[in-house]
Structures are given as C-alpha cells and as structure tokens.
Amino acid sequence: MRHSILLIISGSIAAYKSLDLIRRLQEHDIAVRCILTKGGAQFITPLSVASLSNNPVYEELFSLKDEAEMGHIRLSREADLVVVAPASADLIAKMANGQTDDLASATLLAANKKILVAPAMNTQMWQHPATQRNLSHIREDGAIIIEPGAGLLACGETGSGRMAEVETILAAISKHLYTGALHGTKALVTSGPTYEAIDPVRFIGNHSSGKQGHAIAAALARHGANVTLISGPTALPDPKGVTVKHITSAEEMLAACEAALPCDIAVCAAAVADWKVSEPTARKLKKAKDGEAPELRLIENPDILAHIAQHPKDRPNLVIGFAAETENVLENAAAKLKRKACDWIVANDVSEGKAFNATENSVTLVTAKSQQNWPLQSKEAIAEQLVQNIITHRSAK
Ligand code: PMT
User: Fold this and answer.
1) What is the pLDDT of residue 106?
2) Closest alpha carbon to 209 in 319, 387, 360, 72
3) What pLDDT does 150 receive?
4) Domains of the chain, with CATH numbers?
5) Does the annotation mark 155 as catalytic?
6) Phi/psi of residue 191, each to 5°?
7) What distance in Å separates the CA atoms of residue 367 and residue 346, rounded to the nearest whole number?
8) Mean pLDDT over residues 88-105, rounded?
9) Tell me: the pLDDT tens digits for 286-302?
C-alpha cells in the first residue's frame, strides 16, 4: 500500500528545500500532492512542484477545476499525513486562529489527519511573542512542530528560525507515517562489500556501495524493528535509528552476525567475498627485481548466509538472501535458495555494471513457491516493498 502526503508549501525562501523533500519522498515510494500558497509561489514555481510530484499543484480555494477534481476537503482525506513545509509565520497565525481565507488554511482547518509543521522565518519573527503564542495554540490543537534549526538565514542574519533539514523532516514523516508493524522484532542486516587483505595496503574488494542494505535497514527501523546493521566499508552515513557495526573482512562480518543472533529477521544484502588470500603478508609486497608478479593463493571464506540459515541454535524465523548473477539469474537464484536453505532470495542481474552502486535496481523476489518481478525503482522503494512483504508474511503466520 503506497503511502501519500499532502505537502503545503507557504511563503518562505526555504520553499526551495521543499523541492528536495518531494524528491526524497518519491524515492521512498511515498506519493506527494502539493498545495502552493500565493507566498510560496513567490519562491518556487507551480511547474517545478508539479513536475517533481507528478501531480497537479493546488493553489486557489474554490477554483472550479480544482474543486471538481480534488477539493480542499478531499485533499487531506486522500492523504495519510499533512505536512506544512515551510510554514510561514502568516500561515501559522491563520492555523492558530482558524482562518480559512485561502486554500491552504481552509484545507488545514478541514483536515482530519495528523499535521506536521516545519516553521521557517527570520529570527526576529520566530522569537516574536505573537509567533510563539500561535505556535503554542497549534500545538494544543494537535499539530506536531518540527523545530527549526539555527544558522545563517537567507536574509543574511544568523539565528534560529531556519527550516529543519530535509532529512529531519523525512525522519519525522516516517515516524508518524509508519505504524510500527515490526515493533518488538529484532532484525539483522548485512550490507556493503568486504575487503580481503593481500597485504597491509592492498585488498580484494567489490563495487558494492551499501545503498541497498542500508536502505533495507532504514526501512525495517522505520517500521519499528530493532535493527543491527553490519556494514562493510561504505561512504554512506549510518541510517537513523539503526545500530551499526562497521567491519572490513568476511570473517569479521561473520563474527558480528554471530554476535547479533538470536534475531527474528535476517537480510543478507552484503556483497561478501567468496574467497580470501590464504596468507596475507604483514609487509607491503615489493615488486621483484626480475619483474615477476606475486602469485596469490585464494581460499574460501565462510558462507555467512548459509551459516545463519542453517544455524543449529539461533536460526531467525525469516532469512532472506540476495543473489548477484550475470546469467541464468532466476535459475541460479533458485539454486542458491535451496543450497543455502534461506527462505527468500532477492535476485538481481549485476551484468554490464547494473545494480552495484546504482541508485535504482530491478529485482525478483524468489521463494520456494513463487517469483515476483519488481520493476526498475529506487533502492529505497525496493527496501520498502521488501519490508511490506515481510510485514505481510509475519501477519499471515
Ligand atoms: O550495495 P549496493 O551498491 O547497493 O549493491 C547492491 C548489491 C548488488 C550488492 C545487492 O543487490 C546484492 O546483490 N547483494 C548480494 C551480493 C552477493 O554477494 O551475491 P552472491 O550471489 O555472491 O551471494 C549470495 C548471498 O550469499 C548473498 O545474500 C550474500 O550476502 C551471501 N554471501 C555470499 C558469500 C559469502 N561468503 N557469505 C554470504 O553470506
């Protein structure tokens, strides 16, 4: 079920950040409908909002076209959550006094959903007693304020009143959008590459960026799971609300997974090296005088997914692996599902530079009974869809 947000953009220079908020919401497969106030339209165009949100932008109260299509009453009915970002001092004053002289204020008064408010204004306006009175009124009425930050403001002054960062607004939306269906469950996710040392300077690695594993960890946490993410070396920030253990080699990843058991759900998205150098040297290998290149002998690494799926004592009740294939994708994935004895496999074609480090991917969810092809979409959307499947699976038991 795709969540949807009604985003009300009012008159503040911070309106430009709302374009990024729309983009990030779309990446998380959240539908966005927007109301742009007259003030907001001074800072960003209806066209930019419409093209980013893939929906018409609503501006006028009682415009026959809009009312016919989606009047101010229905705008909140069709949304799971209403977000006002940026919220100008003027719109907050209208909310506090129940004014309805434009589409935004009329919709807010008629709204029957939770309302998140991200104020943005000059410091003097923010600190003015009238603004603070209005804020306490809308808080009493149930609005949830996403506190502005402090820093250099567009007007050149420095102080509080700067709209919260997009990631902070996203986290607040996630907190109120997702019902915490996985509350009380413990999840383990592996992500990113492993580096297998050749000598203190060199290693065998791969192109995994960790984007997919980190997105899955974030999605599980969004839905209330207690998540331990075991990550190989990546450039990504630790996902919010997730316990992250950073490791380097497959052996270290195995030890960290073992320490994270028992758990209810394990998702192994990491690109774990199948082999390691049998005897990595303590000193940096030097080029031989005769130009002879060194020979590396490789030995197998432990298979972490198989170890978890066949764990004698602490097998999680749902173990999900990935399969990175360059040919016969589904056959190889089905064979891996059986060989490793996991419950689901997310199969992806990684030939011709696909999947690794990409922002989008297309995968097939393979179980013993079915194969579901998921079209090309952001890795966040894949993560959300996988978690929705996990929630459905758990509620069906
Ligand atoms: O990280 P990104 O840049 O976002 O890219 C995502 C991805 C391409 C890495 C991801 O979608 C993916 O395919 N991950 C699995 C990569 C991989 O190692 O696949 P594999 O077919 O070699 O391994 C099969 C499964 O066994 C995987 O769940 C893997 O985590 C696990 N495995 C493999 C080897 C090993 N020694 N231990 C393991 O646990």
Assistant:
1) 93
2) 360
3) 87
4) 4-177 (3.40.50.1950), 186-396 (3.40.50.10300)
5) yes
6) -150, 155
7) 9
8) 96
9) 988 888 899 999 999 99
Beta-carbon contacts of residue 171 (< 8 Å; ≥ 6 apart): 240, 241
For residues 278 and 275, give the distance between their C-alpha atoms in angstroms, rounded to a whole number.
9
- Average the pLDDT over 329-344 and give the result: 96
Q: Compute, in angstroms, the gap from residue 269 CA to the centroid of ligand 1.
A: 5
Token representation of residue 227? 């998540």
Helices (H) and strands (E) in the chain, counts: 14, 20
Gap between the Cα atoms of 76 and 107, Å rounded? 7
Residue whose C-alpha is closest to residue 318's, from 181, 178, 185: 185
Question: Strand 275-277 and strand 149-152: pairing?
Answer: unpaired
For ligand 1, pick from 236, 322, 352, 364 the residue to mutate: most ligand atoms within 8 Å of CB. Answer: 322
Is the Cβ–Cβ distance between 194 and 272 less than 8 Å? yes
| Cα separation values, 65 from 54, 69, 106, 234, 307, Å | 18, 6, 17, 49, 60
- Return the H-helix or E-strand segment holding 347: strand 344-349
Specify the pTM. Answer: 0.73
| CA 346–ligand 1 middle distance (angstroms) | 10
Residue with tokens 């066209």: 47
- Give the Å distance between the CA of 216 and the centre of ligand 1: 14
> What is the pLDDT averaged over residues 134-138?
95
Pocket of ligand 1 (CB under 6 A): 190, 192, 208-213, 250, 268-272, 274, 301, 303-305, 321-324, 336, 348, 350, 355-357, 379
Q: How many CB atoms lie within 10 A of CB 371?
A: 13
- Give, for 330, the enclosing helix (H) or strand (E): helix 329-340
pLDDT surpasses 90 at 54: yes
From the list 369, 368, 377, 370, the residue with the least C-alpha distance to 348 is: 377
